[in-house]
């Protein structure tokens, strides 16, 4: 049925500063997520420099690929390299026309901006410089600016091009206006709902997930290819996204259940909830106060704990004790223990956790001490060797001493992650 076919979209991000890596693109992923919520399948995100031929080539490519909707970001300013409106108009076969109403709206915005800053401006020069922003392809719909750059919705044969400004603070508020236009609504009306779920696992390699998916297909008889399954190793955790249309919901649930059954111990989230959200929820539900003792992680665990709003409800504080002397003075770690076992040892991690409980008056504590590198490793305690101790005031405790792979940043970051999962395990018992 024509009304139920998959609607596909492509995104073009413009900006030489993105190509050169001076800034990271956040618009492409953000627009992709919004389109998925509307049932639109995003096939391509293309980044091009501020060169007219490159942008036009990207538009032609997406048209040749059969995209129903094309969304561009950037290139709508008043400077010479801001040519997106002109190029999209040429691509759509629609010559530019001066939109007098939009020109006045832009002028009003600029006058207010200048007045707030008590700037004296040359009105004629200002209008000349910004007139290009009011040039609109014939038959297109202009979207009122959030900053000074209006957006555009441009019919282009069998497809529609939505032209949005580059700054996220302007692009995101303009998005609802763009999808409310008649031309875009007509495209979206053909879309069917696209559903999704996110599973999160910790402590399992991607290769095992791939093996499990093959087993689900071969042994369980599930047509895995009927849904879209993507796996991503994200900072030490495996994130599995499953997307499906209405008619394949049963397949999606079978994939989810098959993965959970095979990796029950490693699966910690079936609904996309992050480990940080889970730990915060457990601390609130248990009504306990947390204290931290960190060495090699240098406060990175405390940063994760305090990132959610309202962390003061359950977080007493953290002590970063890097030196032997700090461990002795601030956490009460015995000097002879440090000398006998070394600062990086399960015994010292335990003493640090006990010290945090006492020094901070906490109900639960986590301690981290390790060799972050790149130097300082030995055969017995190589770079990446990290000792953890998570414990409750009643003596219930979990201890770990893995060797964490990666460079110094990876080891420190993953140390905080391991500690978060240990907290979840401890509080969930």
Molecular structure report:
The structure is a single chain. With 429 residues, the chain is α/β, with parallel strands linked by helices. It folds into three domains: 2-188, Molybdenum Cofactor Biosythetic Enzyme, Chain A, CATH 3.40.980; 195-269, Alpha-Beta Plaits (2-Layer Sandwich), CATH 3.30.70; 275-428, Alpha-Beta Complex (Maf protein), CATH 3.90.950. 41% of the residues lie in helices and 22% in strands. It contains 16 helices and 17 strands. It has helices spanning 16-19, 27-37, 52-64, 84-92, 100-116, 123-130, 168-179, 182-188, 206-218, 249-262, 275-286, 300-306, 324-331, 335-341, 346-360, 408-428, and strands at residues 8-14, 41-48, 69-73, 96-98, 135-137, 141-143, 151-156, 159-164, 195-202, 228-234, 237-244, 267-269, 290-294, 315-320, 364-370, 386-392, 397-400. It has a six-stranded mixed β-sheet, with helices on both faces. A hairpin with a 2-residue loop joins strand 10 (228-234) and strand 11. Helix 9 (206-218) crosses helix 10 (249-262), helix 11 runs parallel beside helix 16 and helix 12 packs across helix 16 (408-428). The radius of gyration is 28 Å and the shape is globular.
